[in-house]
Every structure is written in C-alpha cells, then in structure tokens.
Write a structure and sequence with these properties.
517 residues; 6-stranded mixed beta sheet; 15 helices; binds ligand BES; binds manganese (II) ion; binds zinc ion
C-alpha cells in the first residue's frame, strides 16, 4: 500500500474517493468548504436537508458528476471544540470499512483544519485508523466476508494559509503506518486459535519480530524456569503437555542510562480454568487470554522501528491453563521466584501466577519501572465494561503521568485504588498468599496480589479483560481483538524518551479539602 501526503489545491486532484470531515456547528472550512464550492453546495445541501447534522460517526455518501473527484464520503466529527486527534482513528477506520467494502482501492482523506494544532499526531492517528480498519478477522475462512484491499491512501492537507507543515505530516504518517501495521499484527496473533497459538508459537512470533526490528531476544524453557525457581508459572503449565515459555525482548535505545522500562504481558494461550474449570459458554474466547502478551510483542516491534532514546524490556510469561493429569489442584502450594508461597485455591486465577514470576524476572533483568497488561479478571468487565482499562499501581505520580499520555491515544484508562485493606484479603491461612480472594473487588485484590512481586519498583497494572477483544463490530473496526493497550504503550514510551518521568507535587492532594488553607 502506498501512502502519499499532498498539499496541492483540491481542483488539481484526480481522486477515486475523497473522505471529508464535517462538524456539528455546520461551518464548512478547509477542504470541506472548497469541495462544497466545487460541487455547487452539495455538502451545504446535506445539512439543510437534514441528512447530516455533523454528529460524530454520521456518514453520507455522494456520487458526483465531477470528473476529477468521483465519490465523496462525508463523515461527522461532532463538536468542533472537543476535537481530538484520536477521533481521526475512527474517522479513517470507518471510511476504509465503508469504501473498502464497495471495492474502492484508492482513498483520499481530507484533514480537518482543527488538526493543524497537532499535525504529527493527527497524521499518525489517521493512517493508524485507516490501516486498522482494513483488517478482516475472518482470516480462517476460505472466502473471507468482505475483503478490503486498499492500494493507496492520500492525505490531503491543503489550506490557503499553508498551516500544515509537510515534514510533520510525513513523519506522522510514517509513525501511523508502523503503529497500524503493529496493531494488525497483534490482533492477528490474538485471533489465532489455541491449537495454532501455543507458548512455543508465541515465542517464535517474538523471535521473528526481534530479527526484523533489531531487538534482543531470549527465552526460558521449563528447565531454565526450574533453575530460576519460577514455581508459580510452572504450577500453571503442569496441567498441559505444551511447555511454558518465558519470552523476553529487549531494546536498548539509551545505553548510557540505567533506567529501564519493562512491559509485561500475560500470555495464557488458552485458559480453560484448569481443575477449577470454566463453564462451557464462550470458553472459546479464552484463546484471547494472551492479548496482553501480544500487545507487548506488538509494542516492542514499534519501538524497534521508531528507535526512541530509552531502554525497554518486554516480558511475556506464556503458558496454557489445562486440567491435565498432573495439573495443579485447589489447595496446592507453589513457591514463586521471589520465595513467596502461594496457596492455589482456584486454578482459574492463573494469570496472577504467571505474572508473579514474570514481574520478579523483569526486576532481575534490571527493570526500574514496570507496566503490565493482562486479561486478568472477569470482574473488570463488570466494573468498566468494554470501554476502559482498569489502571492500578503503587506510585501515584507514575500512574498520573501514564494516564495523561495514554488517554490521548483513543484507548481509555481509568484509575482504580489498591487500598491497603486488600492486602489482608489475599493472605492465606497456610501460605503467604492465596491466589483467589472471592468476588468482592475482584480486579483490585488481583492487583494487590501482583503488587507483592514488584517490591518497591514503580509499577502500573492494566486489567484489559474488558477491552482486549470486542464481541461486536463497530463502524471503524472489525470485531475481535483490539490490540489494547499497544497504542498507550507506544505513546508512553515516546513521552518518557522525550520528556523523562513527570513528577507532580501530589502531597497536598491527599489532604481532606477542609484541611487545605
Ligand atoms: N482470563 C480470565 C479472566 C477473564 C475473564 C478475561 C473474562 C476475559 C474475560 C482469568 O484467568 C480468570 O479466570 N480470572 C478469574 C479469577 C477468579 C478465579 C479469582 C475470574 O475473573 O473469574
Ligand atoms: Mn483463568
Ligand atoms: Zn486467564
């Protein structure tokens, strides 16, 4: 697929299809205004006839009698004042899916004038969304549903005032392409069924990524895990014939620095629940229990290509969770890499077990900060639905910094508390910890459990159980895996590389309002 950035006037273009943004204030400017004039007020007519109001997600498709611009897809972006660059992910994705299914292979996108305030980010979001929109998730059909094939994307940024810098547009489009392709790679990994996506397959995918994108790679097999005393992950993999793997990717962008950010992703390639077996309904969705791991591998591939000045480690504990004859039984006790003993009272709470050893291992490999992502608890789907990622951690400044950056990407993150009270709930009568603490605050007790394995290292835990995959198609995205939180991982790594860690003076914020003077 070819991507071109064009800043010439609209009337010099020959286009198969042009996508134009409109807002709810009904004011046409930039390319939308030029086009309206060329087409004798056709867009103004859409407003006055009531066909569109400019609301977010609205669409109107026009065949023009114009010889140079054959088709126009008008897409609503909602309120102009609330415009954010990340809205262009949905704008472009919806256009690609609409026009692509009509067998259109070349698309031109007009950037709204509002994008001039964030040129690089806008171009990046638009191209990212267009590429993510292409992915068809019926990859195992001999005849896919609606094959979308896009050969060319043209980014039109013409304004009379030349407000769009060409360099920033080109740079943004390049980033968007890398990001979009990594998103689709991650989603394709997640789509692969358990029989074609075992821990060994996941390790092979990571190894290939390391070769193509200049990353260091190593992997621990089960013997090496025994040597490292990783009893928690080994306790999970016992129930399966497929051996576990501890997968590591490393990018060294700042050799002079001791700082190292670790991204850790749960890589359960199938979660049956083990002896505490899950109900049969929708159990097939548990092939998606490696989405956190896939997002880490995808993010590392982007980091390898963008090469920011920062050190990043990717760790993916990969295992199946099956009820084989040697499987962990409820009541069994395992010892994690840091020596802590865990009573496994529910073999279905396996994610926190594989992560326990992965978090310890990330620290052994020199991580000075850690962010983990995991499809960890069903309770997460109850609390934040399929909309936001539960975000927990042990360092308020680190969490705030992450939230500020992550929430600009179009992915949503919401801060949840790891109160001290939860620590007693995950204690065991017989061992240091128990892996299941029942239903109340299920996502938070899981987070509290993980906290035990990071010691004092600043750490953020992302529970992506509700957001890693979606059961319904949307206008801009096929149903199935979403690659969340890949976009946030990348944006945060870029911000850390450019600006370092943000420190806020949060001491006053902990005071009761009445205590502040
Ligand atoms: N992988 C599941 C969590 C999950 C559920 C992800 C639904 C996506 C959708 C996890 O391993 C699990 O089974 N968690 C248990 C924990 C409980 C036993 C403490 C759960 O949430 O029921
Ligand atoms: Mn489970
Ligand atoms: Zn699981």
């Amino acid at each position: 697929m070819q991507i071109r950035v064009v800043s010439d006037s609209l009337d010099t273009q020959k286009l198969t299809a042009l996508v134009v943004p409109v807002f709810s204030d009904r004011r046409l400017d930039g390319i939308a205004a030029q086009l309206d004039a060329m087409l004798g007020g056709a867009i103004t007519d859409l407003y006055s006839s009531g066909e569109i109001a400019g609301k977010s997600g609205e669409r109107a498709f026009l065949h023009t009698a114009d010889r140079s611009i054959k088709r126009v897809l008008v897409i609503g972006l909602g309120e102009r004042e609330k415009f954010e660059a990340s809205a262009l992910v949905r704008y472009a994705g919806a256009a690609v899916r609409h026009l692509g299914k009509l067998n259109i292979h070349s698309l031109a996108f007009a950037l709204p004038l509002e994008a001039q305030h964030h040129v690089r980010q806008s171009a990046s979001c638009l191209i990212e969304g267009a590429i993510a929109g292409i992915l068809d998730t019926t990859i195992y059909r001999t005849e896919p549903d609606h094959p979308i094939q896009i050969d060319e994307i043209i980014l039109l940024a013409h304004t009379d005032a030349h407000t769009f810098q060409a360099d920033a547009l080109t740079e943004g489009a390049k980033r968007g392409r890398i990001l979009g392709e990594a998103i689709n790679f991650t989603r394709t990994l997640a789509l692969r069924p358990g029989n074609e996506m075992t821990p060994i397959h996941l390790a092979t995918a990571a190894k290939e990524i390391s070769r193509t994108h200049g990353l260091a790679y190593h992997v621990l097999d089960e013997d090496q895990m025994h040597t490292k005393k990783m009893g928690a992950i080994l306790g999970v993999s016992r129930g399966s014939d497929e051996p576990a793997r501890m997968i590591v990717l490393e990018y060294t962008g700042d050799p002079s620095s001791k700082e190292k950010l670790a991204l850790v992703g749960k890589g359960i390639t199938f979660d049956s629940g083990g002896i505490s077996i899950k109900p049969r309904e929708n159990m097939e969705d548990m092939k998606y229990d490696m989405c956190g791991g896939a997002a880490v591998i995808g993010a590392m591939s982007v980091i390898g290509q963008l090469r920011p000045k920062i050190n990043v480690l990717g760790v993916v504990p990969a295992s199946e969770n099956l009820p084989g004859p040697r499987a962990t039984k409820p009541g069994d006790i395992h010892r994690a890499m840091n020596g802590k003993t865990i009573e496994v009272n529910n073999t279905d709470a396996e994610g926190r077990l594989v992560l326990a050893d992965a978090l310890c291992y990330a620290r052994e490999l020199g991580a000075t900060r850690i962010i983990d992502a995991a499809t960890l608890t069903g309770a997460m789907v109850i609390s934040l639905g399929h909309v936001a990622v539960g975000t927990m951690g042990n360092d308020e400044d680190f969490i705030k910094h992450f939230l500020r950056i992550a929430n600009t990407t179009g992915e949503r993150f919401w801060h949840l508390p790891l109160y001290e009270e939860f620590a007693t709930i995950v204690k065991s009568e017989i061992a240091d910890l128990r892996n299941s603490a029942g239903r109340p605050a299920g996502s938070l007790t899981a987070g509290k459990f993980l906290e035990t394995f990071v010691d004092k290292t600043p750490w953020i835990h992302l529970d992506i159980a509700g957001t890693a995959y979606l059961g319904t198609e949307s206008a801009h995205q096929a149903k199935g895996p979403t690659a969340v939180p890949l976009r946030a991982f990348v944006a945060f790594v870029e911000d850390l590389a450019h600006n370092g860690i943000a420190k806020s003076n949060s001491s006053t914020e902990k005071l009761h309002p009445a205590a502040r003077t």
